């Protein structure tokens, strides 16, 4: 009754999820923990396992949002505030252009009892979830992540002396 053959193939397409938020957090942690080393986009890109151009784009967004400072031609970016004062929400706002975690499928069949009514219902629930997630994001800061990364690396790595010194600063 509500079946739309033209959309049959749609389920074969994988939905792509952006990893820019995750990569932005990674970049900020890298910048803070490895201050004083080579912080070029090429080196950071190796850690993120991404293209240096993608890293530069993310860093540009972080700079526009005043989360980092950098000078053209110098590979020495810095956090513009203490990690305790940079929340996940700050990073999310800097990176996510659409500011929507959940998106309603706009292509449901309007003549169907479900397809014609589910969009508004889901939009309301997704708005509630969005507000809840954003409130939680404000409670998580970059210092929390830096500390957890340091703890994890300290437990798993048989590190050289320089790496141990880096980790000790954040434990």
Give an overview in words.
The structure is a single chain. By secondary structure, the chain is an all-alpha fold. Helices cover 51% and strands 2% of the residues. The protein is built from 7 helices and 2 strands; from the N terminus they run αααββαααα. It has a two-stranded antiparallel sheet. A hairpin with an 8-residue loop joins strand 1 and strand 2 (78-79). The longest helix has 20 residues, at 118-137.
Put the structure in a nutshell.
By secondary structure, this protein is an all-alpha fold. The chain has seven helices and two strands. The chain has a two-stranded antiparallel ribbon.
Secondary structural class: mainly alpha
Distance, first to last CA: 60 Å
What is the mean pLDDT?
Answer: 86
Tell me roughly what share of residues is in helical segments. Answer: 40-55%
How many strand elements?
Answer: 2
Sketch the topology as an H/E string, one letter per element: HHHEEHHHH
Strand residues, percent = under 5%
Q: How do the strands line up in the largest sheet?
A: 1-2
Largest sheet: 2 strands, antiparallel
Radius of gyration: 21 Å
Number of helices: 7
Shape: elongated
* Low-confidence runs: 8-16
């Amino acid at each position: 009754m509500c079946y739309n053959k033209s959309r049959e193939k749609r389920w074969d397409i994988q939905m792509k999820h952006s990893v820019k938020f995750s990569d932005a957090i990674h970049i900020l942690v890298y910048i803070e923990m490895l201050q004083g080393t080579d912080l070029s986009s090429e080196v950071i890109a190796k850690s993120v396992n991404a293209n240096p151009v993608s890293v530069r784009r993310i860093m540009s967004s972080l700079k526009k949002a005043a989360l980092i400072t950098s000078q053209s031609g110098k590979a020495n970016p810095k956090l513009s505030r203490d990690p305790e004062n940079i929340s996940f929400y700050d990073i999310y706002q800097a990176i996510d252009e659409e500011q929507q975690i959940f998106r309603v499928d706009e292509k449901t069949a309007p003549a169907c009892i479900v397809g014609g009514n589910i969009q508004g219902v889901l939009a309301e629930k997704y708005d509630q979830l969005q507000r809840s997630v954003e409130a939680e994001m404000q409670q998580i800061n970059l210092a929390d992540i830096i500390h957890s990364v340091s703890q994890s690396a300290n437990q798993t790595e048989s590190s050289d002396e320089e790496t141990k010194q880096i980790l000790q600063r954040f434990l």
